[in-house]
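Input record (one chain):
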Amino acid sequence: MATEPKRVLVLHSFGREFRPWSEYAKSIRQELDRQSPWPLEIIEYSLVTARFGDENPELPFVGYLSALFAKHPLDLIVSIGAPAANFVQHYRSLLFPATPMLFTAVEQRRVRFSTLTENDTVVSVAHDLPAVIENILKVLPETKTIAVVNGNSPLENFWRGEMQGEFKPFENRVRFIWYNTLSFDDILKDAASLPPGSAIFWELMIVDAAGVVYEGDNTLTKLHAVANAPIFSFDDSFFGRELVGGPMHSDLESGKKTAAVAVRILSGERPGDIKTAPIGFAAPKYDWREMKRWGISENLLPPASTIFFREPSAWEQYRAQILLICAALLLQGALITWLIYEHRRRQLAEVQSRNSMSELMQMNRLSTAGELSASIAHEVNQPLTGMMASASAALRWLARENPDLGKAQEAMRNVVAAGDRASDIVTSIRAMFRRDAQERVHTDLNKLIRTVLGLVYIDLRKHSIEARIDLSEQLSAVFGNEVQLQQVILNLVMNAIDAMNAAEPRVLSIKTETTESNAVHVAIADTGSGIDAADLNLVFKPLFTTKARGMGMGLSICKSIIENHKGRIWVSAAVPRGTVFHFELPAQQGRKGKADLSAPARAMPDGSPPAAAAAPSRADEMIE
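The corresponding structure, as predicted from the sequence alone:
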């Protein structure tokens, strides 16, 4: 069988939407639903006569309630506010004298304890009115005027008298303005023009001096919209939008205690045996938005205060995101710093590498100079010998009884030509072995090959090596550093000569051509013992050498020079034996070499072979 619901009558003093009692009633209902072990039937009525203090209509209302619940007795009557408590106490004998009665949301001064019966109990509150003024003066020390907003109903007039008595100790510090004699419209006008250093104390506004009844939240909201001073109150049912805050009654705490007492009564406990102390102000609470609006420092708040509606700072609101961004920025900064450091380190390493390479190239050239000293001496000696022979011949032609001036002039022209050739040879040798700059010009590789063959002329004859050259007459020019490219050719030729020390026959082959991809290709082949297949991929690596006394840097330098000229170099096996070194360089459009390979070499006056003879124009010519 289902449990019968407990019937509870809730009697309001003014109406269901009059704050603060409406908030107390809401809290009590919520707590009853939460704490009650039985189903509840809650019936609510309002004592409208309390707004005007007219008792004539009350008897018919008493008769209505008696008739309404005659056949359905109540288990508990709960009165909300002082007017409802006074009404019930006044008509207790007519309103179900045996029904338990609970007075709540009423200030202890409004309860007539002498008329309470064994079926009555009270959960009252205690107003500490001086504490409200002290709070205003603490958080706003410059306050000189306090405007008190209260209406003109009997309840409001009672509390005006109480406040005037309790505020007297403060009259030497502030001036009080009482609004009970004004209509609400006039109150709004006055509140909008309060002098500096003012504050507003919101007590109640049920009925104004013009007799207009105000229900709900509109009055406080309108006052907040126009007031030029902060608003305070002693009841937190008004808190959350318009009030600064301070010590106030908590409707939640009162609702919990009231519901707890109601459950005890519904459980059968006699109301007269239940005694509760009046509920005082809760810990101070403040609205951060109003504090910011009126410039109230957090340092002025009383101890144990709680601040509500604080707008979180960017750090509080986005702490995780800020930390993540900071971490990302720090990581990015560290990465950028590391990259800059690495870039700088690599630049320094590249500079050091280039300097080291330049030193190695210079050492390689000087080493080559030592090996080619005989050829160099021969190259320089040829034009000098020719100059001496031509000069002697000219002197003989001039010393005759009849000087042959024509012959003498021709001999002197030979002297000048030999001097020019000597100058060219010295200039070429100086360029080969100086620490050259990185200047690049349009270069004829055929000319560089002939110059190198002239330098190695003695070595070719010494080792009985046959030079076979096939230089393309239409070879395109390349853009590069003549000294460096000449060093590449010289290194490859000297390597070929060294590779054929113990070989027979000994043939050095040099071929130039322009490829289909518009690159200049140079191939230098020997008929030596060749390079092991396993070493073909290692010959260009630094410090790798197949020579007994080699440094292992020559071919590495050659590779560096060719690649620095945007070319490529490689090695392959020759057929039937030997090794072929190849390199290619980008050709320059529209530029051809100026070599005249078909012109015969001009003999010097002393009959010695000219420098060009080191680079014969006919293939298969033997250099002896």
